[in-house]
Amino acid sequence: MRFVCAASVICVLASSLPGTEKTLRPANQRFADSQTSEVPDFQRHVVPLLGRLGCNGRACHGSFQGRGGFRLSLFGYDFKMDHAGLTAQSSSKQGPRINTKTPAKSLAILKPSLEVNHEGGNRFDLGSWEHHILERWIAAGARGTSAPRELKRLEIDPKEVVFASQLKSVKLRVVAHWEDGTSEDVTPLCRFRTNDDSVVTVDNNGHLESVGAGDSHVIAFYDNGVASVPVMRPFHTVKESIVESPNAADGNTIDKLVRAKLNKLGIVASPACTDAEFLRRVSIDVTGTLPTPDEVERFLADKTKDKRRRKIDELLERPAYAAWWTNKLCDFTGCNPRQQAELGQETSVQWYMWIYQRVKSNIAYDDLIEQIVLAKSRRSGQTYDDYASEVSAYFRLDSPSDFSQRQTMPHYWTRRTMEKPEDKALAFAHNFLGIRLQCAQCHKHPFAPWTQRDFQQFSALFENVKYGVVPAADKRYRELAKQVGLNVRGKNGSPIRKDVLRRAQDGRTIPWRELYIDRRKAAASISLLRSDVVQLAADEDPRVQIMQWMKQQDNPWFARAFVNRVWAGYFHIGIVEPPDDLNPANPPSNPALLDWLADGFVERDFDMKWLHRQIVSSETYQRTWKPNKTNRDDRRNFSRSIPRRVPAEVVYDGLKQAVAATDNLDKVRTDLTRRATGHLSMWLAGTYGMHVFGKPERALNCDCERINQPTLLQSIFMHNDPLVEQRLDESGWITEISHAEKAGDNLDRRQLVKTAWLRTVNRPPTTSEIDRANKHLAKVESLEEGIRDLLWVLINTKEFILNR
Amino acid sequence: MNQISRRQMLKVGVLGSGLSLSSFLRMNAHASEEDKGRSAILVFLGGGPSHQDTFDLKPDAPAEYRGQFSPIKTAAAGVEICEHMPRLARRAEKYAVIRGITHNLAAHGLGTRYLMTGNRPTPVVQYPMYGSVVSHEFPAAKDLPSFVSIDRPVEGPGYLGAEYGPLSTGEKPRYGQPFRVRGITLGDGLTIEKYESRRNLLSDIDKAFERFEDLDDPVRGLDRFSEQAYRIISSRRSRNAFDLTSETEREVERFGRHEFGQSMLLTTRLIEAGVRFVTVLLEGWDTHADNFNRLGRELLPRFDQSMSALLDRLQEKNRLDSTSILVTGEFGRTPKVNARVGRDHWARAMSSLLAGGDIRGGQVLGESDDKAQGPKSDGFTPDDLAASFFKNIGIDPKTEYQANVGRPITLIRDGAPIPGLF
Question: Is B124 in contact with A197 (Cβ distance < 8 A)?
């Protein structure tokens, strides 16, 4: 399969650069002299020049209603439209925009040079190379571009910039390599951008100036290409700060790759966290669950050297691991009760349980996604009647069939928000490729390589994925509908409502709409985001080929998107941040690390547990949150653990577990049917508590929907919400204490205090904490009251609500 | 005024002096009790109200541009607004109309971010919403939230950090239904003494991040929010502020029975109680279709009634001079009416209102061209509007903050207060 480098960041690192072809000198040199014989090319020179001069920006002629009667495509790359715009009859009295007979009289030259009044001000001076490009192009007939030339690769030099103490300024050089083998130095025709101007600034000509310590990227845009260069300035003098940790030699690959980056920045990583911190952190991150007091004590008492490794293995085998990561996969795939085709709650629970069964058996990630992507309602050869009775049986009250045993899961495609091919394209790119195509729906993406054509092609792919009533089954569908009293409007059938569902619950067959592959208008040849081209027959299921493409070893996004999201689940940020914006203009903070994880994941057949195990086994993951003097300001390179608020579901379950009766603790921990990370995940979606703590609605194509920031409302909730009071009121543990107290039992206060700590912040209290707690217990009327206060206090500590 | 810059906080946190961040904040919040400083209201007309059908009518433009509404004269000479706002017309001396505001972000998300921060959005720096800046500069008295968003927050605290985010009520008050912000009223059987004693125990025990309270955003945010939550929950004043049942039926009617009216009534109560910044939403202005029915029958009459009531009430309570009010959407709408009798997104021209504080009312500043397509001359930017709003609140728009990107950032880098406004 041919692999064209659209994602230049990834490619530049992976491929060696051929240096044999002769590269054209930059346009500002070639056109410095007005007498040059070279004819500028519309695509290669004129449109990029208009972009660089800002003509096609949103404020100017790129606006959807144009400006001064002249409109260009926003951010360029619509050559037909731009050429038509430039050559159209101007309404101005001051003459034509383009005058091929007397080029110097063209408004396209007179206005931007302010020879004629121009609202957009002076863009270039007469006699400049910019002027010469436009004038030469006009003089030669102002020819447009009928078939755009393919840009193969945009190469940026140097490959990396590390500002040492003396070095303050660097000049970039950008070379465009075209499919036809030619190449040109396009530095003066690029747009440049810095991703962090507190680290580095860049001017129009590609001059970098170091501003402060840290690391970021400078991005160059030209044609539909994007290239980036990492720029660093060490926080500390590298020589002084590099101290190899004692067991660096046998550290795992993640640690080596992280350390390599830290070394460049003069950062020493923080040492390992305590065992108690590790246990709490890894339990939350792997299983969405707090450890129980027994578990904490056993782990702390264990003196064996490999106890962390064994704990990791144990956690990955727990059903709670599957539950928590199913919850995350429901985030990633957009499982939202309010967007389902029908029966939102039931459908979402099916969706959750279907994924859960697969994560639990550790099915390969690509297989899991394939069974979603290739979903159809009917198995091949299945009749409509058989299908309708199969689906009805999932809802039967008397021994229902198990939806999660279905080979595929069609709900992904049948959501009301997935009706149009464009909606499918946006969701698909975001969910499985970590790509945001939104901007390209209407214009060239300003900060990514995507053009409108890329978006249109990708959308067209899904043209014949349909949901409704298959014409051939229409008769049977309507008969069934009549039998059960379903009112059908329109030709695409109707959603099942609760009253009709009751028939199915009673064991009858009701009519379901179905997900099927229609015939597209004609066979098509479609580009997959310029990374591959597929040939589709008219009646072909387009998803088969896109799935094959995603599973390819060299697919630039599929594995990376998932690996990066999983990483972001274990740290405060992704290697690419935001984690759902894989885009050459938003490069990874540590490309070697992302590559290694993605490659390893693919090589191990998309084994999700392998990925989780690699990450949590690393020193990088197991570091303390406490900074040293070199890494206080580093938040990008994983040199320490940065505290995160625990997710909404974990708060909910953690509160329940903290107050549970002693002999019920294990059940509360393990009974997934009663946990917000488990079966309640979808039932609780949208409730007040989940909303306050930022469980995502999954209504947008954005990972940012899940909020892990503290807010005032959360503190008010923890202090005084009726739900928190109810938890304390109904606490099995407090009831136990109350009963024992009333029975006159001699309770060990010290032990109770210790248990309160173990239940909530999952570590034993310090001596001074015990003393302070005892002081309080002595002050109140009953032990019951004192412990109740203590639990309230502990769940209100930062240590409880943060995962550090 | 006590301005707590992040840098000051860092100094306190890092250099020690034995002062924890929360006690430092306590000190500051205490200090602010004596200051009778200013407050502010943002009325956000979400969706992008059509400027030429509200405050910038073009009766002489061709029919396909001017639309269906006519302008009416107002109490201020030379100021004309849409016929569907007769009450506001009578009160024109109380506000200034700003026309010819122009930008180029005609998407809801980006436009909102721009208008709510006065800084053009970039992918690297998240600028703070007005209310976050105000609660940073003028924290409210210790038993009140500084910044309240009725319903949902409009934009976030950005680089100032989560602790300057709003208390959002989660819903709008509805006529005839009890409104309470869950958790603000002490639960049954929980006395204030009990709450205080728990709180004391918490202060002594919550020390896991001692010496590093200033390092990470979530830690800093939790400290501040926990402190604030305590003060708010234990305060009678705060409960009263949110309690609409203490208003007379006549007052409830004056603001209007609809959610927006009730939200505006709550807004004034909060301001009167001493909340520093309130955001209130009136959404539905994204009229790609059926623009004139939606504006003429619903949005404009509601806005007219509740906005007028708000201005009157603040004046009656002697609060108008100390309360700065901004009314704005995220952009204007296309000059030409489209085939669905709607107007689409248009950022090159929009209009806003400024009122209260030192604003000289009864005037129009700025001008759009004859078809309301763009500003007549240079126009104003959202940055200028923001600089004006901040100036009216008493915050220098050129204030520098130490952002989490590690360099000082000017509050409003590119804008300047609109001349003639004060």
Answer: yes
Q: Which residue of A has its CA nearest to B102?
A: A59
The tokens describing B39, both together, are: 């407050």
Does A711 sit within 8 Å of B162, measured CB to CB?
yes
* Contact call for residues A789 and A725 (beta carbons, < 8 A): no
Q: Do A793 and B104 touch (CB under 8 A)?
A: no
Is residue A644 over pLDDT 90? yes
Q: What is the mean pLDDT of residues B405-418?
A: 81
d(C-alpha B259, C-alpha A749), whole Å:
53
**Concatenated DSSP letters of A240-267:** HH----TTGGG--HHHHHHHHHHHHHT-
Q: Where are the beta strands (DSSP E) in A635-777?
A: 644-645
Mean pLDDT across chain B, nearest whole number?
87
| ipTM of the complex model | 0.86
The side-by-side arrangement of strands in the sheet containing A169-171 is A169-171, A207-210, A200-202
Domains of chain B in start order, with CATH, are: 6-410 (3.40.720)
pTM: 0.79
Answer whether B343's CB lies under 8 Å from B289's CB.
no
Interchain CB contacts (distance < 8 Å): A and B: 162
DSSP A524-578: EEEESTTS-EEEE-TT--HHHHHHHHHHSTT-SSHHHHHHHHHHHHHSSS-SSSS
- Report whether the peptide linkage leading into residue A578 is cis, meaning its omega lies within 30 degrees of zero: yes
Query: Residue B99: which residues within 8 A CB-CB, separation 6 or more?
Result: B51, B55, B56, B349, B351, B364, B365, B366, B367, B368, B375
CB contact under 8 A, B205 and A793: yes
**A73-82, A123-132, A741-750, B126-135: segment of lowest average pLDDT:** A73-82
pLDDT above 60: residue B407: no
CATH of segment(s) A151-233: 2.60.40.1080
**Does the distance separating the beta carbons of A794 and B170 come in below 8 Å?**
no
Is any Cβ of chain B less than 8 angstroms from the Cβ of A717? yes
A94 touching chain B per CB within 8 A:
no
- B97-105: average pLDDT: 96
pLDDT digits (tens, 9 = 90+) for B132-187: 999 999 998 888 889 999 988 888 888 887 668 888 887 899 998 878 777 887 77
Q: What letter represents residue A255's amino acid?
A: D
A40, A133 Cβ separation under 8 angstroms: yes
Partners of A720 on chain B (C-beta within 8 Å) are 183-187, 190, 195, 229, 233
Going by C-alpha positions, the residue among A703, A579, A765 that lies closest to residue A694 is A703
Do A675 and A307 contact (CB within 8 A), yes or no?
Answer: no
Question: Rounded to whole angstroms, how far apart are CA atoms A475 and B357?
Answer: 70
Please list every residue in chain A whose beta carbon sits closer than 8 Å to the beta carbon of residue B208. Answer: 761, 797-799, 804
Rounded CA gap, A449 and A442, in Å?
Answer: 14
Which of A:542-601 have CB within 8 Å of B? 586
Structure tokens at B238: 């705060």
Residue B164's pLDDT is 83
pLDDT tens-digit readout, A53-71: 989 887 788 877 778 888 8
Between helix B217-233 and helix B192-205 the angle, nearest 10°, is 160
CB contacts, 8 Å: B226 with chain A? 715, 719, 796, 798
| Average pLDDT for A541-566 | 96
Name the A residues in 616-675 with CB < 8 Å from any B CB: 625-627, 632-633, 642-645
Can you list the positions of beta strands (E) in B193-244?
none
The residue extents of the domains of chain A are 42-139, 151-233, 363-551, 648-803
Residue A210 in contact with residue A174, Cβ under 8 Å?
Answer: no
Residue A662: pLDDT over 50: yes
- Whether residues B205 and A214 touch (CB distance < 8 A) is answered with no
